[in-house]
Amino acid sequence: MKTIIHKAETRGQADHGWLQSRHSFSFANYYDPKRMNFGALRVLNDDIVAPGMGFGKHPHDNMEIISIPLEGDLEHSDSMGNTTVIKQGDIQVMSAGTGVFHSEYNKNKDQSVKFLQIWVIPNQKNVTPRYDQITLDAQHLNNTLYQIVSPSPEDQGVWIHQNAWFHLGTFEKGYTSSYTPKNLDNGVYAFVLEGEMTIATQKLHKRDGLGIIEAKSIDIHADSTAKLLIIEVPMLI
Predict the structure, then answer these.
(1) Do 21 and 129 sit in the same domain of this protein?
(2) What is the pTM (predicted TM-score) of this model?
(3) How far is CA 186 from the centre of its chain?
(4) How far, in Å, CA of 237 to CA of 234, rounded?
(5) Secondary structure of 190-213 in the HEC alphabet?
(6) Which of the listed residues 135, 158, 193 is the one where a domain comes to its end?
(7) Most buried of the four, 24, 86, 116, 170, by CB within 10 Å?
(8) Pirin N-terminal domain: from which residue to which, for each copy (predicted)?
(9) Which domain holds residue 101?
(10) d(CA 143, CA 140)
């Protein structure tokens, strides 16, 4: 087993006034040649958008974009004709493929919206753009790693054009579990959303990330009440 740790305070930072963002990997004006990606995981941004503000309509292509709201309401609009609102408990996916324009705004005028913006490099280029979102039952996340993203439209959660799996869970203090990669050639990126956890013997705090490769099984222990996102991706990029 090999690991690489990304402590929360070492992430890139952007302050645009209306947007506060922390970047686990190189993005926009933040560049670190040692932190370009973790396999197919290209972007993991931790964004806070001020009330009533947001990202105006802009283009993407050939990228799988997953948004996970943590607080507040985010209003989405795109060139495929979708207009919707995502909130805590929702998972949004957009396959940019041959090209799509979209905007994301904080729908509320009195509170910030917090969300994770995640980009995964696809295994197919120039696919037809698509959009989907689901709402999770919070009870399904209790003391378990619940699948929220997979490569198959037949599986639980939303799907993307990549052999990648995301799992999300909330844990009571003292809870112990493990994660077994779907493909042993894949890497696993663990991102602690809340609390403190020990993963693969590594002590992690809120917003710490841990990349793990060459692991048959990964031990997970909640040192406090905690919330965890697991991202499994191919490493051959």
Answers:
(1) yes
(2) 0.97
(3) 17
(4) 7
(5) EEEEECCEEECCEEECCCCEEEEE
(6) 135
(7) 24
(8) 10-120
(9) 11-135
(10) 8
